[in-house]
Amino acid sequence: DGVQIQEYLQSHYLNALAALAEALQGLPNIAGFGTMNEPSNGYICVKDLAKSEGFRNGYAPTPFEGMVLGEGIAQDVEVWSAGLMAMMRGKPARVENVDPKGVRAWKQGVDCLWKEAGVWGFDANGKPQLFKPDYFADVDFGNECFLPFAKRFTARMQSIFPKTMIFAEMPPADLSSLEFPQITSKDVPCAVNAMHWYDLVTLFTTTWRSYFTMDFATGKLVFGNAALRKLHQKQLAHTASFGRAKMGNAPTLIGETGIPYNMNDARAYVSGDFSAQVEAMDNTISNLESQLLSFTLWNYTADNSHKYGDLWNLEDLSISSPDSEALVRRISGVRRRDDSARGLRGFARPHARKIAGVPSQSEFVLATAEYVLEYSSETFESPVPTEIFVPYVQYPSGYRITASDGHFTIEKHEGYDVVKHQHDSKVHKHRVMVAPTKPIPGKFGHSNLPVYVALAVALASPYLEAYSRK
Questions:
Q1: pLDDT level of residue 64 (50, 70, 90 thresholds)
Q2: Domain finish residue from 347, 371, 390
Q3: Which of 117, 273, 382, 423 has its CA 20 to 30 A from that of 311?
Q4: In this predicted model, what pLDDT tens digit does every residue of 180-203 receive, in sequence order?
């Protein structure tokens, strides 16, 4: 249409979001607008187009190989497995010849854009050759690409919804080494750091292993449950730091987190046993709690199915499913309100939904069903109490409340209580604990034995391969 491609794409995107905002005008429950869901920097900042780096699962062509494949030319491409052994060995499962059979990604008569720019071409023998491996290396994605877009997005949205919050989101920090830009309140007024975070090994492999993960920032493997949790907490602290250090002390809302419910070959969809999902979700939320982070779970899909998941790309992260409801009722023979929930104990947890002060701890231990809230307050009496959500699913035999000071009341609801704590105005620091009246049977444990076995196999594999070739 004679419009520069960046302007064409961004203007259409902004027009679409503006149309949505205009349609929502007048509604009281619009908190804000997100800049873009998990934006990708693509080739920008890639130092060497001849290398394939980061997490790889399935076909993993280098950027250069991708360009050549787009020209319809066959390439030998690495194929990676997301399994534990593949990660430990750091090698592709195989190399496979991928042949597009002359089918090009470009329109007839249009040359490859990167070939036109001199990034690659053909040598004297007609073989594809990379001329500029660092062509995209010197671009600052955060400051040169994301920030101008975010400023433009903000101006457009806030022209329709003045002072609405802008949930700013760069590419996921654990999958990139991009520099987060400095975002001032003038650039993006009412900004919120809304970066996403997932336990990536569990997400990508759809397998829960309490004893193993990978630090994608360094490529190093991490073994043992304590080390796994330490890494996840470090990642979350790093993500939250962007709000404080780069966005003028803006609040952080982890805009997306969750687990794949079809993990471990979807065995839970046959047995009805969601204990692995409960453990995986507990790991995710416990680490978020340790950093006092607000978050939104991805996701709730009302028409989720065991066969097609969330009805997008076969992802299956919904905390509820009609198919799971039917399964549970078929197995148990009874009907209960929360039957559609999958691994309910993992995400229906006690938490403070309102705090009359500043929290220093808000953590729930699933194994003991103990929840602790600690917070500090000013020396005057608060006009509103602190409120703690207490779901019955965690306390089948009831619970007790222990408060360091003040008094509390309990407000009853269907399936949960709200504990309201009015602290003593003469006391500065407060502690409220929710605990079961009877000990919870069957405590969770995390054995590291599987990782020792895997390590032994990984160490022995090269020798076994060498022996088999003799």
A1: very high
A2: 347
A3: 273
A4: 999 999 999 999 999 999 999 999
Say yes or no: 339 and 355 in one domain.
Answer: no
This prediction has a pTM of 0.89
pLDDT at position 123? 94
CA distance 25 to 34: 16
Does residue 112 form part of some domain? yes
Q: Are residues 241 and 336 in the same domain?
A: yes
Identify whether residues 116 and 149 lie together within a single domain: no
Residues 235 and 185 in one domain: yes
Tokens coding 340: 């559609």
State which residues form the domain around 117: 58-130
131-159 residues labelled b (16+ CB within 10 A) or e (exposed): eebebbeeeebbeebbbebbbebbebbbe
Residues whose CB falls within 8 Å of the CB of residue 81, separated by 6 or more in sequence, listed in order: 57, 92, 93
The answer to the question of residue 155 being in a domain is yes
Residues 195 and 228 in one domain: yes
Confirm if 192 and 165 have CB atoms less than 8 A apart. yes
Residue 217 pLDDT class (50, 70, 90 cuts) = confident
In this structure, is residue 53 part of a structural domain?
A: no
Do both 232 and 316 map to the same domain?
A: yes
d(CA 183, CA 35): 13
